[in-house]
Amino acid sequence: MLDARVVIVGTGPGGATFADAVTRAGWDCIILEKGRNHLLELEPPFAPKGDFSNDEIKFVYRHFLGPDPLLEPRTFRRDHNDGDRLFSGEVNNLPSTVGGGGVHADGKLPRFREVDFRLHSELGPIESSTIDDWPITYDDLEPYYAEVERSIGVAGDADANPFASWRSGPYPMPPGADMFGATLSAAAAERRGLHPYRAPTGANSVAYDGRPACNNCGFCGMYGCPIHAKGDPIALLRRALLTGRCELRPESHVVDVTLDGSRRSATGVRYLDSGGVSHEVRSEYVVLACGAFETPRLLLSCDVANSSGLVGHNLMFHFQTLTVGGFSVPLFGSRGRSVTHLHDDHIVPTSLDLTAAREAGLPYFRGGIVEHGAAAAPIMEAKTYSPGSGHNVSMRRSDLRDRLWVFTMQGEDLPQSSNRVDLDPSVRDVFGRPSGRVTYLPHDHEVAASRHFAKTLEEVMLDAGAEWSFSTTSPPVGEITALDRHNPLGLAPASRHVMGTCRMGDDPRSSVVNRESRFHDVDNLLCADSSVFVTSAGYGPTLTLAALSLRAAYLLTGDTRPPTTPAG
Ligand SMILES: Cc1cc2nc3c(=O)[nH]c(=O)nc-3n(C[C@H](O)[C@H](O)[C@H](O)COP(=O)(O)OP(=O)(O)OC[C@H]3O[C@@H](n4cnc5c(N)ncnc54)[C@H](O)[C@@H]3O)c2cc1C
Ligand code: SF4
Question: Is the CB of 9 under 6 A from ligand 1?
Fold first, then answer.
């Protein structure tokens, strides 16, 4: 006797998209989420719970959306020379809560470009990287991109970005209001010949889908939205629940994917409830949407679907270049969404960029999307000033918040087999499960691209009116300093974009899931998160992982979408 046709593990953008699609196709599903529920009531009409507020202590320091790194530590090392680990604690954590990282993100939702799916064929290999083509193309994904933009609610201007891939239609909403600082930095970028544009964002610019327009409260990235102007993933989860065919169980920590005797077919999952009591759910299909860190951790801990030995390998984060500028005038970065403008120019290298790449010993390099954004929150700022009588003066003047502006380049991170998630040999979480461990060192590609493009970003920052500018990276590069040893957490990448740990491909010897996101080893087990990415591109992963999840769900239920063509 089955409990549901589909069981989905994880309620982030990937799991929520899958649940929305299968329930619309008439299938029933149970979604299990290990975190607590602060998002929506679990009885009809599934109204927002109203638990979110503009409260930095609650969200940033008290881990309101989880996970608490003391209870669920991850560990980090750069390579085996660091021993078993450099430290244990917070490593690129995404929230563990109903809605996952979608609740927390400020939701810049660009699409990948055509070339991003064919990097090996179009630009070629790079030594010591496992660059490959995806088994699907941009054209295969376009109908699903268009549909998730409508179901999440993305505000953007389809004609604004000259580097954007083709689209079958416009965004469902126009872009929202500009941040003042972004108007200065975008104008300077244009003077430099770059092509800034208003960021496609999953926050309503007008009332949409029964939710209000964003009021630009300023507490966006790292915070739940108090008015639910952000649609991802509350819109999808609510729609799935409203069908009456979806049951959501928070505080249900999946510890096992159960298999039949052949080990080629999943029978369901086993989970622990908040009291530590074990339950089993039996289903026809199991969908893993735990995020690209927790999905391989779960598979490795129950030894499932890893005949290739590749589960956890090819881990990618974006390599972040952070160019900071100090202004004499306030930029009011505390108002508005966290980022309102982007530019893509450094993803599409010019002949000058290619010359620089060759000088660095590489056939080419690519940077990533550049976010024009504000800097710190009030308490983060307060911690940077010395205590004493000058503190209030410093806070009022706000040199390190209101007068700062930041470019964040999400640099393409090449896949490398040695970068991976595995199980720490001795650290465990509060449930007794082995902690996930990251082994990660950036490739020379990322470091060289960052050095090269940082110079342009600093020049643009100064032209925008900054009195000074400098650049740094996450993770830091070079020797470990005394400061790093004092605060080793800063050595881990901080992008919150995690990808690649169950890569997609046609050959079971060199990939983990097939082009339909099903595991090669276990046919009724699917993956609906960014674990399946083959390369990282230089764009935020969330829209692409949601489009892939939607495509996988439709292929499963037989509800596929016809191919699309460019609009107009
Ligand atoms: C501050 C911030 C800003 C961001 N900004 C952007 C942005 O602008 N653009 C962009 O593209 N991306 C952004 N991101 C990243 C984005 O949040 C992630 O790409 C996205 O959330 C990943 O979705 P997912 O569904 O794959 O996984 P997640 O959102 O991580 O959801 C996975 C869920 O699974 C649950 N889970 C895990 N293991 C288990 C288990 N064993 N049992 C039960 N449940 C489990 C987790 O608790 C979690 O709720 C940002 C992230 C943060 C934190
Ligand atoms: S800036 Fe807008 S979308 Fe972001 S949390 Fe505030 S109201 Fe919500």
Answer: yes
Give the Å distance between the CA of 528 and the centre of ligand 1: 12
Report the alpha-carbon distance of residue 350 to residue 365 in Å, rounded: 10
Q: Is residue 204 lining ligand 1, measured as CB closer than 6 Å?
A: no
Number of the ligand 1 atom closest to the C-alpha atom of 530? 26
What pTM does this model have? 0.98
Q: State if residue 65 touches ligand 1 by the CB under 6 angstroms criterion.
A: no
- Sign for the CA dihedral angle at 444, 438, 368, 398 comes to negative
- Whole-angstrom CA distances from 201 to 54, 339, 340 are 20, 9, 8
| Helix residue ranges per DSSP H, 89-209 | 100-104, 119-122, 138-152, 180-191
Cis peptide before 45 (omega within 30 of 0): yes
Which ligand is the nearest neighbour of the Cα of 66?
Answer: 1
The answer to whether 132 and 120 have CB atoms below 8 angstroms apart is yes
Count of C-beta atoms within a 10 Å radius of residue 320: 23
- How sure is the predictor about 482, in pLDDT bands with cuts at 50, 70 and 90? confident
The SS3 assignment for 519 reads strand
Is residue 411 helix, strand or coil? Answer: strand
Q: Which of 531, 237, 542, 186 is nearest to 371 (CA)?
A: 186
Q: What are 197's strand-pairing partners? A: 342
**How confident is the model over 431-477, as pLDDT tens digits?**
999 999 999 999 999 999 999 999 999 999 999 999 999 999 999 98
Which SS3 state, helix, strand or coil, does residue 204 take?
coil
Q: Contact 101/12 with Cβ under 8 angstroms?
A: yes
For residues 117 and 121, what is the distance between their CA atoms, to the nearest angstrom?
Answer: 9
- Cis, peptide link before residue 67, omega less than 30° from 0: yes
Atom 2 in ligand 2: residue holding the nearest Cα: 214
Q: Tell me, using a 6 A CB cutoff, whether residue 227 lines ligand 2.
A: yes
Q: Which among 376, 301, 422, 294 has a CA at the least distance from the CA of 32? A: 294
Q: Which residues are CB-neighbours of 1 under 8 A, at least 6 positions away?
A: 282
Q: Is the pLDDT confidence value at 560 over 90?
A: no
Match 């660009």 to its residue by tokens. 110
Q: Report how far residue 362's alpha carbon sits from residue 354's, in angstroms, rounded to the nearest whole number.
A: 9
> How far apart (Å, rounded) are the C-alpha atoms in residues 13 and 8?
12
Phi, psi of 190 (to 5 degrees): -65, -40
Nearest residue (by CA) to ligand 2, atom 7, is 214
The pLDDT value recorded for residue 206 is 98
Alpha helices in 127-179 (DSSP H): 138-152
Q: Whose CA is nearest to atom 4 of ligand 2?
A: 220
